[in-house]
Amino acid sequence: MYEKFINNTRLRRFTVLALVIFILFLVKDFLTPILLTFIFTLISVRIVTFVQRFIKAPTFLLTTILYVIELVLLYLLISRYSTILIDQVVSTYDSIVHFYQHKEFQSDVITNFIADYFKNHNWQDKLESGAGIILVQLQNVGRLAVEFVVSFLLSFFFMVEKEKTVLFSRNFLSSEYAWFFQDLFYFAKVFVETFGVVVEVQLLIALVNTMITTVGLGLIGFTQLPTLAIMIFFLSLIPVAGVIFSCIPLTLIAYSTGGIQTVIYVLILIVIVHCIEAYILNPKFMSSRTKLPIFYTFVILLFSERFLGVWGLIVGIPIFNFFLEILGVKIRTKKTEQLD
């Protein structure tokens, strides 16, 4: 029975895939660092391979230079962006204080309204629940920062010893249970190919989002556009949600720059960019690079985002291509039909 199972390639691969899915379900809390490590490594491999076409340099040297550049850019982004954000928060606070101290401000009416509100509502429970929500969000941000750093270091260690790691991993393909690792390698190869396309598409979307948003902010009257463009680009690498994340700092800057009217302009711009990304760029770019119809791409993105969250927008297409490969479904186009 064991030999029959080994020789039945289709059943064997279905079993291995089911085992992989089960293991991933057990370690679902670690999916974020796993996916981040994979993304960082994949991007680094693509960049280093591209550079080695023109410059014959060791992988170790190019990897070190690449990661140093990334750290410098990240430091400049955090330092410059945090300074701008702090200045805008202070300016917003000063404007609120100035508004409160203005002679036309009816402080008695507002004060009485606030006093009556707190008297008639259980403000202590609401304050505690609000503080709890803020604390949970801060913990999530801290955990994500730690996962980001760990994933960045793991990808660096892999790239530094890429050849050695690959050679060591190939030993499993000739082990006593080589069939199992060969199937894992088969799935990994399919996933890397499809996932690489998704990463390339997301980079293109991030560039388009950055250009549209930067031009719109320039027309609105924003300054420090290069720093804001870097921030928008990094946030745009997060599918769909990145545009929403950029809403908070941009609205703060907009309020201190031109008041409520500028905030409304920025919100309209963010809504437009979000709609363009979610309903035009994402399905169109995905369908063009994965050779899937826009209808299928759009449906896959909707379902994967519903069941897997933001990560579903990244892994949804590779998972679908997994099943296409396993089921033996070949994507045919008009050109292939004409050749047949």
UniProtKB/TrEMBL annotation:
<comment type="similarity">
    <text>Belongs to the autoinducer-2 exporter (AI-2E) (TC 2.A.86) family.</text>
</comment>
<keyword id="KW-0472">Membrane</keyword>
<dbReference type="Pfam" id="PF01594">
    <property type="entry name" value="AI-2E_transport"/>
</dbReference>
<feature type="transmembrane region" description="Helical">
    <location>
        <begin position="14"/>
        <end position="40"/>
    </location>
</feature>
<keyword id="KW-1133">Transmembrane helix</keyword>
<feature type="transmembrane region" description="Helical">
    <location>
        <begin position="179"/>
        <end position="198"/>
    </location>
</feature>
<keyword id="KW-0812">Transmembrane</keyword>
<feature type="transmembrane region" description="Helical">
    <location>
        <begin position="141"/>
        <end position="159"/>
    </location>
</feature>
<feature type="transmembrane region" description="Helical">
    <location>
        <begin position="262"/>
        <end position="282"/>
    </location>
</feature>
<feature type="transmembrane region" description="Helical">
    <location>
        <begin position="228"/>
        <end position="255"/>
    </location>
</feature>
<protein>
    <submittedName>
        <fullName>AI-2E family transporter</fullName>
    </submittedName>
</protein>
<dbReference type="InterPro" id="IPR002549">
    <property type="entry name" value="AI-2E-like"/>
</dbReference>
<feature type="transmembrane region" description="Helical">
    <location>
        <begin position="203"/>
        <end position="222"/>
    </location>
</feature>
<feature type="transmembrane region" description="Helical">
    <location>
        <begin position="294"/>
        <end position="324"/>
    </location>
</feature>
<feature type="transmembrane region" description="Helical">
    <location>
        <begin position="60"/>
        <end position="78"/>
    </location>
</feature>
